[in-house]
Specification:
Length: 422
């Protein structure tokens, strides 16, 4: 086996057809990271017959004293079922990269390990995963563990929505809570549109306080991926006023009817309690909500007669999958649920264009009720997405001497390259 340098087109041709391919292992991602200050390289692995049997994009930066960590995001694209090839591949990485000042080679292959239900129970397991794990470890790679949160460069758990059915049938399968939030957003006069100019300033405004990604990084993704889409949620303030007024007046009428029924059935307390009192209490709550909506809508119409943007999402399409990279919303209007309507619009749009999947991106692998990321999981899994677990992250020490020095100087035991995105 020998390691070669691949041209961008050579790498992309190999990548798109590989079973572990992802949008991270493309020249588009490589160029985006290059624009963000990373060095990049496309490695190819050829056997004795000069056949290309593996490839990967690596990104790297100097971490100390001209020494570097190489990271293959969702790579290497390789046959991990063959332990002898993996061992030879690891040996060649040490020989080639170890002499070039690299101290660690990091990878997190896009190999699915399990499929789970929304409660975290394994419903399907990759029958090869144990053998693959054993082969990688025996080749000298150090496994970072079956972590459940965001300890790695990229998440180990994602939520995948399967398309292909009629959109009405997909909507019916969403959780009741999710359908209610989508309908509320739509009923408030929120509409979704694609920004063909891909201006990301509003998106960044929504996520800058909660995310480590910079505006430059987001801009470079949209610039380098022709398949990127930028969706915006617009609150039409005139429609918001009209719909809020309708809902408020309709609920007032319903509330009056319930009050009359309670007054006319005083003799039968059990019937009142079971049929009317609970409904009246719920109606009282809705009246309060709708009244606040009407006051807010009236104020917004005066201030923003042409409407205002309250949510946004960036997607990248690759290999029949739309990947939601980042999304955010104006916290002042979080109760209008624009993020739910955005996701439903993306599902519907991609389904109409015959894509196969929408990847909702990261969830956590802890499904207990006391999970600190419960809301993240609940929101994404409410779209009847499939929790998918991947094999995880591995490090290969390329130069033991330099690695020992690096560890003695490094304050962080687990240096993350993606923290360096500027």
């Amino acid at each position: 086996m020998r390691i070669i340098t691949l041209k961008e087109n050579e790498f992309d041709i190999f990548s798109i057809s590989h079973k572990y391919s992802s949008y991270y292992q493309t020249s588009s991602y490589g160029n985006a990271m290059k624009d963000n200050g990373f060095n990049i390289h496309y490695l190819g692995f050829k056997d004795e017959n000069n056949k290309l049997i593996g490839a990967t994009l690596i990104i790297y930066k100097e971490v100390f004293m001209s020494k570097k960590i190489a990271y293959a995001p969702r790579g290497i694209l390789f046959d991990y079922s063959n332990k002898f090839l993996i061992q030879e591949m690891a040996k060649k990485l040490k020989e080639v990269l170890g002499k070039q000042g690299f101290i660690i080679f990091r990878m997190d292959p896009y190999i699915p390990a399990t499929i789970r239900n929304i409660n975290g129970k394994v419903i399907n397991m990759n029958t090869e995963i144990n053998n693959i794990m054993k082969n990688i470890k025996q080749a000298g790679f150090k496994y970072k563990g079956q972590n459940k949160y965001f300890e790695n460069e990229l998440p180990r758990f994602e939520a995948i929505c399967t398309l292909g059915a009629d959109s009405r049938e997909i909507f019916k399968k969403l959780s009741k809570r999710t359908r209610r939030k989508i309908n509320r957003a739509s009923g408030c006069g929120i509409t979704i549109y694609k920004d063909l100019d891909k201006k990301t300033d509003k998106l960044y405004e929504f996520i800058k306080d909660k995310n480590t990604l910079t505006e430059k990084y987001i801009n470079n993704l949209t610039k380098n991926y022709k398949s990127s889409n930028l969706y915006y949620a617009i609150l039409n303030t005139d429609s918001f006023v009209i719909e809020s007024k309708k809902r408020y007046e309709k609920e007032l009428e319903k509330n009056d009817i319930l009050s009359n029924k309670i007054q006319n059935n005083r003799a039968n307390f059990n019937t009142i309690k079971s049929n009317y009192l609970n409904a009246k209490m719920e109606s009282d709550k809705l009246i309060n909500i709708y009244k606040k909506d009407l006051v807010l809508a009236t104020e917004l119409l005066k201030k923003y007669p042409k409407g205002l943007i309250i949510g946004a999402a960036l997607t990248i399409e690759y290999n029949n999958t739309s990947n939601i990279i980042i999304d955010g919303f104006d916290k002042n209007y979080s109760h209008l649920n624009s993020n739910y309507l955005l996701r439903w619009y993306i599902i519907n749009d991609c389904n109409n264009r015959k894509l196969k999947y929408v990847n909702f991106n990261a969830i956590v692998g802890e499904f207990k009720k006391d999970n600190p990321y419960k809301q993240l999981n609940e929101m994404k899994l409410g779209f009847k997405t499939i929790p998918t677990e991947y094999i995880g992250e591995f490090d290969l020490v390329l130069n033991k001497f330099n690695y020992t020095i690096y560890k003695s100087f490094s304050k962080e035991k687990n240096y993350k390259l993606k923290k360096e995105i500027k």
